[in-house]
């Protein structure tokens, strides 16, 4: 027997569940234990050992290990072991960095894992899809992915797209009745919903009959295991840069070695020094640090409620120059309250706030009663043509479902209406709401089997479909005059920033087919609702900050043009000469015409999701980097086409989330601003540590090169070079990755996505500081060597300390694009900690007797330190004054 052949009741019995209660928590956890989680493949882990070994596969490291081995064989045990240990420690650090990056990426994936709406213990809960078990009752709406294989027991115009399973991209209409035929193909099982397929329209409820690998999708899952690691453009750019740097470093090292040999240094000594220098100077760890910086930034974003789905978005965020944002729910609270009702040609005012069901109706300050003509009809229709419900949690009312629907329910309750209504009237057909149609209808049958249709939707959509309107006591033909009256009312409400909804109805004779779209015509307009949805408090200042940061904010909404304009003005989003465009105007515009006005347009009203794509393209055409938000199914194409697709964590559908690169966990516009700010900061931090690492490396190479050119002894020995690379490069560079943003980071204009890493003076800064670091180190070496010609170790210790100190001072310079004096050096506590620990390690290496022979160091006096500190401060302080 197949599931699709069984009646819903039989399925319930077989799976020991009732559709109106769902499983109990205990049942669910038992089943999860028995059948496992609802996931497709057991994830395969790369072995930790492999990741560890990978740290040593670098060519230069291998050469270094070989050279060390030779040194060991030649009897230089101390050097050999010291180098080995340093290489090992380096490997560990690389390993931990990679693990950290890996783990945070893993965590990210979990956070953005899909959720399912299930009935457990008689109440609807949102749980992670992986926790769904056989027997669960699940509810799906348009835009959701079906979390498991289900037998559908209720369908409201539910359609699904199953091309992943069948190759057929046309939507399939689903229903709930059993099918008697046997041996049906997947596409003919129209009362089944399959895991991973998409609900494109309507909604439905189903009983889970298969999870995990026991689903149709599970059977073909092995075909689609693609877990390729994504590389971001920046990582790619850096990999390219890395290759160039390797060539340059190798060339310079060979130069150093060649010169050394010509100047009479022993071949073997120069070889080991050269290899160590190459290892130190090649920034092989750069891509890993970048990944760590990116993923740490991603975690900071999560704390600010922005969930990055694609690492590359972090970079693009910093380039955003236009944000196209939905109004409803993103700029506003999505807390709708009916404030006004237009009925019989008069305005009623409704008191009460939020979703509290206490409130009254007033006409000219007089309270009106339930008997007020048509009021009860209008509110009860609003209640019937409705998919939301009020739930009480801790004494507070919340809306389960669309807040617009919720507001109408609350208004009906204020008049004292109850759910009893649903018993008198039976809903036999629903045409669901979507942003294209901008309306929703139900066909209702009353106790006498009389049928009628209720339509609720945007008034300017309903008005052309109406032939009559309801006056105080009778139905009247809709003529020019009262049409103008109603239009006036719509405009007046919208001007007050109210969202407008109209209610219409018509009777239907019992022999008319209910499938016809023509039903929503020749309506009798009953009245209008005016709903208030206050702007979110943080949005106004977020829009202002974006403006200062050179980012334009554009509002996009399906609402009435006047509502949109009123809210845009309230948020100071619309400048005095800014344009407002409507969907019907967009329809008539060619791409070129739109392109002419797009820079001056700030609000798009009464648009459908298709318009969004046109808007994104027009902005991109102008060279903008566009961030676009969306929540519904139809928003996915525009989100995909934009540079930064943003979806809603709370109200968003699975499709839009999958298409997006950023999810707002709180649906809040202000979160986009925070994410952009963080995106800019991360990029700046990456620039900071690239600057620090490369300037350090330039200094290291140059001091050796200069010494060889001048025919001097080696200023640094191999172990010292490797130590510098390990200690000064490691921790301080990481700490720069955690630096706070400079104050003016949101006062600069967006970064050009095509700009190179070294632009805006970074290349000059690296070279100039690097050269100076090399020079002061060499000066320290020469001065000490000339005063103590027979104590080379002393001179080397001085050079070693000067180099380390110069880098540790320079690291503070790297925090600012302006000047080292522009920032408080103690602000970044990680950096202070990193510098102090590097400093302590330096002292240990210099003063601790057991280490002295290993690092070829001697104890230094206070006078020596005065020289060292004086010299090492020069590169940073000097440039601090020139501000270049
Ligand atoms: P947005 O989300 O940008 O505010 P929508 O497409 O949701 O735009 O809504 C457009 C219009 O459709 C609204 O102005 C309102 O008149 C109408 N509308 C919104 N929600 C509903 C609903 N649940 N039922 C009927 N009509 C609705
Ligand atoms: Mg909406």
From TrEMBL:
Keywords of the record: ATP-binding, Cell membrane, Ion transport, Magnesium, Membrane, Nucleotide-binding, Phosphoprotein, Translocase, Transmembrane, Transmembrane helix, Transport
GO cellular component, one term: plasma membrane
Catalysed reactions, semicolon-separated: Ca(2+)(in) + ATP + H2O = Ca(2+)(out) + ADP + phosphate + H(+)
Mode of membrane association: Multi-pass membrane protein
One GO biological process term: intracellular potassium ion homeostasis
Family of this protein: Belongs to the cation transport ATPase (P-type) (TC 3.A.3) family. Type IIA subfamily.
Record-given protein name: Ca2+-transporting ATPase
